[in-house]
Amino acid sequence: MSRSDVLVDADWVEAHVDDPGVVLVEVDEDTSAYDKGHIRNAVKIDWRADLQDPVRRDFVDRAGFEALLSERGISNDDMVILYGGNNNWFAAYAYWYFKVYGHNNVKLLDGGRKKWELESRDLVTDVASRAKTSYHAKEQDSSIRAFRDEVVAAIGQRNLVDVRSPDEFTGRLLAPAHLPQEQAQRGGHVPSARNVPWSKAAEEDGTFKSDDALRSLYGGAGLDFSRDTIAYCRIGERSAHTWFVLHELLGQPNVKNYDGSWTEYGSLVGVPIEVGDAR
Amino acid sequence: MSADGCGAPAGGAPASAAKEAGGQAVVQGRVTRNGSALPLGYARLLNSGGDFVAEVPLGEDGGFRFFAAPGSWTVRVLAPGNIRAERVVSADIGKVTDLEVAV
Questions:
Q1: B33/A contact by beta carbon, under 8 A
Q2: Among A25, A180, B89, B96, which is most buried by a count of CB atoms within 10 Å?
Q3: Residue in A160, A202, A233, A246 annotated catalytic
Q4: Domain boundaries B21-102, corresponding CATH code
Q5: pLDDT digits over B40-99, tens only?
Q6: Strand pairing category for B42-46 and B52-57
Q7: Is A222 helix (H, G, I), strand (E, B) or coil?
């Protein structure tokens, strides 16, 4: 798989924004950014309201995903281009989520909303109108999604990549530093995890680093490329960014995203936790 | 934004920490250009080793806010037009560190 299979740049988007069969989707946790201005023709997906079950902590089910994409006017044959704020965290999460439900023709806008803004490219407030479709999703692909028992079983057996900041990894902070630190769960990391913050895979403008730089980054952190890998963070969106790097850019075959992540693991009774630097 | 989320809302989390730090080590500030608020850009928080820790889009008033840990931090501002600026700050629990960044 080459980068052009999974990434597009801003020039490509400007050239293809009106193409039939291409659907731009902005994905954010805080969708006020979309409401203030977005790339022309883009529809929005709200990470929480649209992608999370309103009662259980889980994805929306298959029928819910089908209803969402049908309502947004996305068909099975469309090429979906995802972008968003936070250096594409939530767009990468949506990319992984689309793959879980079997939509294969999906790509990320490299650099996301930030690079687009820093380059002073056009944003509009007009909301695109798209005809409804009848989208059909596949069964969830469990080969790219990890659950808690699998994470516990992977301790010392597989690569565990904790992509949070070093302060979250060691237990000094419980959340990213742009959020208050009052949380219920314990601090620390899954034993045997390596700490490779998601941000090390990205340039300052939000684009992904080169394949050589990425291989050197994860290899240098102690990842064994011959082993299967589980990535996690706090709620699974930063680790979706790293899942994208390992699975889609570097072509590692068996990489899972643990979307329960630290808010689940750090609240479990009886599981082992390490604090401090990686051992 | 809720405690369950992880994203960075423009200007940083609207916590009660705007004026009182409580148990947090708050680093916050406002970015201006030619005396006016700069609403389009990003504030990045780097640790003492220069590693990225967090980033928020600037608020409509040019504001940003981080909840750090005690220690030395660098705030780096990025904005359209290749604008970059940096300030080194010290954070402490129970203290709000306020910055004015003119770019």
A1: no
A2: A25
A3: A233
A4: 2.60.40.10
A5: 999 999 999 898 888 999 999 999 999 888 999 999 999 999 999 999 999 999 999 999
A6: antiparallel
A7: coil
Nearest alpha-carbon partner for B1 in A48, A249, A270: A48
Domains of chain A in start order, with CATH, are 3-140 (3.40.250.10), 143-265 (3.40.250.10)
CA gap A37, A125 in Å, rounded: 5
- CB within 8 Å: B80 and A120: yes
- Are A177 and B53 within 8 A, CB to CB? yes
Q: By the 8 A CB rule, do A34 and A113 touch?
A: no
ipTM: 0.83
Give B72→chain A minimum CA distance, Å.
13
With residues binned 3-state (H G I as helix, E B as strand, rest as coil), the percentages for chain A, rounded to 5, are 35, 15, 50
Q: Does A117 touch chain B (CB under 8 A)?
A: yes
Closest CA to A248 of A99, A54, A25, A139: A99
Burial-class residue A269 by CB neighbours within 10 Å (0-12, 13-18, 19+): exposed
Contacts of B55 in chain A (CB under 8 A): 86-87, 178
Which residue among B12, B69, B78 places its CB closest to the CB of A172? B69
Residue in A90, A178, A181 to test binding to B, most B beta-carbons within 10 Å: A178
Token pair for residue A14? 């400007």
pTM of this prediction exceeds 0.90: yes
Residue in chain A nearest B93 by alpha carbon? A181
Q: Is B42 exposed, middle or buried (0-12, 13-18, 19+ CB in 10 A)?
A: buried
What ranges do the domains of chain B cover? Answer: 21-102
Bridge-based pairing of strands B83-91 and B71-79 is antiparallel
